[in-house]
Design a protein that fits this description.
Chains A, B: This is NADPH:quinone oxidoreductase. 2 copies of one chain form a homodimer. Chain A has about 325 residues and is α/β, with parallel strands linked by helices. The first copy, chain A, has helices spanning about 40-45, 110-115, 120-130, 150-160, 170-180, 195-200, 220-225, 250-255, 270-280, 285, 305-310; strands spanning about 1-5, 15-20, 30-40, 60-70, 80-85, 95-100, 105, 140, 165-170, 185-190, 205-210, 225-235, 240-245, 255-260, 295-300, 320-325. In chain A, the strands form 3 sheets. In chain A, strands 3, 4, 5, 6, 7, 15 and 16 form a 7-stranded mixed sheet that branches. Strand 14 of chain A pairs antiparallel with strand 14 of chain B, so a sheet runs across the interface.
Chain lengths: ~325, ~325
């Protein structure tokens, strides 16, 4: 079968579609014929050899397709349409997917739409609910609102929790899109001091919850934007990981809960439980269309380099996909 | 009546016992004739004019004594023995205590013992359970194990949760005492690298929970001592508040939950709920003697300066009290 791997050599910066053995499946897996895979920042880190936890030479941490071998798992039959997180290997014709995190695709969604769901929606769900404990009608600040996780989080916070959603993004085009998804307060971080706008929008109280993909660059402004006793979930360091001169008293006197998290390196059991709760809780909203996967661009698998480049250019709204069915 | 206030003048470094008006009580308060008050680090900050939230010229945030005026509150009668947090004014003959945080003193405890309970045991309970979510048989690292909060936290973690308790302190005398209270692994931080000892004691896994009174000086070692997904509660910065360099990736890749907290500036409602849950949950253990208040020294009220000095010398094991009934 064909799979996308990083080219040999020191300069790990290009991938190629090449012949690879069909994946072996373990007792816990089903074999999925991939229709679409999706691109994630963790794939870029793996391509560059920087993540440290890639175990599969084929890139890709999520896919959607059909069951080619149910491998004795009674909940699935050959031909069932499924989507889910995989332990690498998503950019391929076939992938081994742990059965306990394969989610059936509602009939209203295409394979491409389904491939746009697992990583970003599970991350948004995990950070908003498992870690961030978002409550009904609370206020949440979502940075990178037009990103994959951002567009998922806006919808979940509005539809599941009727939250007040404040987003930041770097262009009017992105902010307009966020507003269409339900965001209440769009802030252009290039033109406005987001902490001042957040305080204006919250009667100077600040937000209950921050989803922070940025890290160092936004630290001080996030500290000013959060309510006393607020929760702050750190899920990315696009704006740097190195912080200088932190005053711990500001965490104490504001009773801040700061939690760091990542999804990809979590255990199989964690991903299975998250997928199963998500399928029960959120997929019904997707089936009726009130929450929807957001696709930016679909590239053919052989243009994976271009797809990565597109993500690195940071112009996408929602997910970048690879079509593996050609 | 007599009350202890800071002397006038620029150099706020001395207190005196002086004539003050008897406190006015609001609708929510009872009036307590104070038998013993206790000294806290927040009193030292107030004495130095550094806390920013003192509202009462008389120092002291907790007291034990008898109800002098129940002020219509049906749960109390004149002469009832009570202990609790107050909004300043504890170092006095009489103090106004919000009725909904006054806790009845079990008959097995003296006033002095009772005065040693509220602040440190409520803080230990709040940080271990409300914030730290300590579960049965988990492992907890308690810094400053011989301090007021430390001695309370060791006992609660052992008696309520059968936790494995690792403590740090700076002398063998303190560590022996911690062991007598139930601590499993005593570490002399002056002689041993505590992170290495913690890893030895936990099969290299680290602890589930850290109670951190130290802040900056222990940051790196705490990061090495905590389990993946562990909780870290920051309740003091005795080792400095200013961190020069923080790498946010270590919070993310270890899924750390870091929560800052303080008790004294919390709302009345928060303190009432905490006191009420504590009275239901912990006081039965005190009544039967398996959890006990730890008293270091009792000073007469007129020697409050000496009592503060004793706390600043950092040689105490457990609480420093002021006797106000002389």
């Amino acid at each position: 079968m064909k799979g996308i791997v990083v080219k040999e050599g020191n300069n790990r910066n290009e991938m190629e579609l090449t012949d690879m053995p069909k994946p072996e499946i373990g007792a816990g897996d089903v074999l999925v014929k991939v229709d679409h895979a999706a691109v994630n920042r963790t794939d870029i880190l793996n391509r560059e050899g920087k993540s440290g936890y890639a175990v599969n030479p084929i890139l890709g941490v999520e896919a959607a397709g059909t069951i080619a071998d149910a491998n004795g798992h009674q909940s699935f039959a050959e031909g069932d349409r499924v989507m889910g997180l995989v332990n690498g290997g998503g950019y391929a014709e076939y992938v081994a997917m742990p059965a306990d995190r394969a989610m059936k695709i509602p009939s209203s969604l295409s394979f491409a739409e389904a491939a746009a769901i697992p990583e970003v929606f599970l991350t948004a769900y995990q950070t908003l609910y498992w870690i961030g404990k978002l409550q009904q009608h609370e206020t949440v600040l979502i940075h990178a609102g037009a990103s994959g996780v951002g567009t998922a989080a806006i919808q979940l916070a509005k539809q599941l929790s009727e939250a007040k959603v404040i987003v930041t993004a770097g262009s009017e085009r992105k902010l307009t899109f966020c507003r269409e998804l339900g965001a209440d307060v769009p802030i252009n971080y290039k033109e406005q001091a987001f902490d001042e706008e957040v305080l204006k929008a919250t009667d100077n109280e600040g937000v209950d919850l921050i989803l922070d993909f940025i890290g160092a660059d936004y630290w001080d402004k996030n500290m000013k934007s959060i309510k006393k006793g607020g929760r702050w979930v750190l899920i990315g360091v696009l704006g740097g990981a190195e912080l200088e001169n932190v005053n711990l008293m500001s965490l104490m006197s504001n009773y801040i809960q700061l939690t760091g998290t990542l999804l990809t390196p979590r255990t199989d059991a964690y991903k299975a439980e998250l997928s199963s709760e998500f399928a029960r809780t959120v997929i019904p909203y997707m089936d009726k269309g009130s929450v929807r996967p957001i696709i930016d661009t679909i590239f053919p698998g052989r243009k994976a380099n271009q797809a990565h480049q597109h993500m690195e250019n940071n112009q996408n709204i929602g997910k970048i996909l690879l079509s593996m069915n050609e």
